[in-house]
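Page 42, continued from yesterday. The earlier attempt failed because a stray header line got pasted into the input along with the sequence. Redoing it now with the clean sequence only.
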Amino acid sequence: MKRGLAGVVLAAFAVLTFAVSTASAATTHQIPIARYSYVPATMTVNVGDVVTWTNQDQASHDVAGGTFHSPMLAQGQSWSFTFTQPGTFDYICSVHPDMRASIVVRAAETTVPAAPVPQPVVQEPAAPAATTATTTAVTATTSAVPAVAAPAPSAPTSPALPGMLLLAGLVAAVTTLCLLLIGSRPDRA
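This time it went through. Structure tokens are written below.
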């Protein structure tokens, strides 16, 4: 019974890990620090992407921006930062302030639903006046007018949870469920 439960827990954990890892497909970008410069000097990434700096110089360097600051990196050491806000982030090496570069972070793409295009309504002429009952037929016709997306009013959006935080919450929930199941079993003497 315990092995069956452990198998179910491991299978659930594997499925959740795969789902979270595919849902949060952040890209990792590399910036080598070589010859007293960051290569490239300007990089464009998306919100949620990770940038990793690796020092290839013999001299120690760091990465100092307004919202981030790495420790001093010796040759061969790396440091990573996840950009969660759009904008342009300039950074320098605090030991060598002439080493300058910037990261441009693009906002996450959002899809705006296409606004419905009003369809023309054609009203057919009324029947001749000689008849006692008049009927009017209204027919909707479709046109080949392409749909144009109207700018939707921006609604406040909540920031997406980082993938690892979501994964940690799911693992905690599965663990709690398993402990409750094991604890609720009657004792067998």
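Notes: Residues 2-23 form the longest helix (22 residues).
Reminder to self: strip header lines before submitting.
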